[in-house]
């Protein structure tokens, strides 16, 4: 998949969520207000936060799709991870806001009976958000986009929240009014967990954490199959948005000419690009294979 196609696919998936989220936000705010449901109205406020988060993600994708330049020789992909951090903070703040509102309602002990429109709004939200999650997670995984994966988790968070909202507002509608804030409070802890997971994975990428070992082993095996490569002495990789930047140290015949070793290194790079469409660049260092050598590194 070409670079432009990758970003267009991610952009399309996020825009679908952006506009559907806008419609859900308006629906839930109206249903919560006119249907006397604190939980549904809180769900609408949460959607407003998501609306902002998705907007930030669209901006991040626009920045991330810019090619490398003189000031950013490794590209602008980190903008996606920064956006995912922002989304995780919004998720956590939303959970805190919902928990606070639920506790305040329980302390005051006033539980108005919600209208049927509030129950229906929660039910519609569950269906729409679960569909959005499945669509976004599928596209996000296929592209390896941290921003889109964060948005997908945010959609799942909304679906979970709305399940609890539906249970609470449904019970309140049939007479158990206290279930509305109780369900909202329980849901907040699920939201905290999703926010933590999103923050952790995004921070790992921003800190240049290694990708999964299975991927590194697959790249190593591919490189060692190229004729002239005696051994992959070391492999490192880091994320840059949807792409990986790979560093390889290859052991080769010390009697080999520079021209020949360069041709082999180029073949390794071409093979990696052919088999791994999420690899954006490969840096290769060549070592002589007939003697031990110490890696010079100040990190």
UniProtKB/TrEMBL annotation:
The keyword Transmembrane applies. The keyword Lipoprotein does not apply. Gene3D superfamilies: Cation efflux protein transmembrane domain, Cation efflux protein, cytoplasmic domain. One of its GO terms (cellular component) is membrane. It is a multi-pass membrane protein. Residues 211-288 form the Cation efflux protein cytoplasmic domain. It is found in: Membrane. Coiled coil: none annotated. One of its GO terms (molecular function) is monoatomic cation transmembrane transporter activity. Residues 15-207 form the Cation efflux protein transmembrane domain. Keywords: Membrane, Transmembrane, Transmembrane helix, Transport. It comes from the Bacteria. The chain crosses the membrane at residues 12-34, 40-61, 82-103, 115-133, 159-176. PANTHER family: MITOCHONDRIAL METAL TRANSPORTER 1-RELATED. This is Cobalt-zinc-cadmium resistance protein. It comes from Citrifermentans bremense.
């Amino acid at each position: 998949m070409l670079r432009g196609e990758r970003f267009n696919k991610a952009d399309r998936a996020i825009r679908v969520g952006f506009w559907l989220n806008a419609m859900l936000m308006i629906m839930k705010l109206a249903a919560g207000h006119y249907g006397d449901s604190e939980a549904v109205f809180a769900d609408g406020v949460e959607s407003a936060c998501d609306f902002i988060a998705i907007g930030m993600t669209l901006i991040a994708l626009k920045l991330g799709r810019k090619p490398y330049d003189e000031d950013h020789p490794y590209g602008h992909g980190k903008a996606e991870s920064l956006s995912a951090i922002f989304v995780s903070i919004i998720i956590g703040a939303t959970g805190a806001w919902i928990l606070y509102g639920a506790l305040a309602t329980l302390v005051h002990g006033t539980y108005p009976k919600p209208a049927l429109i509030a129950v229906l709004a929660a039910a519609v939200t569950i269906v729409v958000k679960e569909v959005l999650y499945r669509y976004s997670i599928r596209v996000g995984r296929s592209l390896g986009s941290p921003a889109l994966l964060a948005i997908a988790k945010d959609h799942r968070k909304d679906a979970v929240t709305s399940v609890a909202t539906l249970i609470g507002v449904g019970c309140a509608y049939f007479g158990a009014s206290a279930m509305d804030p109780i369900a909202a409070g329980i849901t907040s802890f699920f939201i905290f967990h999703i926010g933590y997971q999103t923050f952790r994975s995004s921070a790992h990428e921003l800190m240049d954490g290694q990708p999964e070992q299975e991927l590194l082993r697959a790249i190593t095996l591919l490189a060692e199959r190229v004729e002239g490569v005696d051994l992959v002495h070391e492999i490192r990789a880091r994320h840059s948005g949807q792409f990986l930047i790979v560093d390889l140290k290859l052991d080769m015949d010390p009697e080999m000419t520079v021209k020949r070793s360069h041709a082999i290194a180029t073949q390794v790079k071409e093979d990696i690009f052919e088999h791994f469409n999420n690899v954006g660049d490969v840096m290769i260092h060549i070592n002589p294979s007939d003697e031990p050598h110490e890696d010079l590194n100040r990190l």
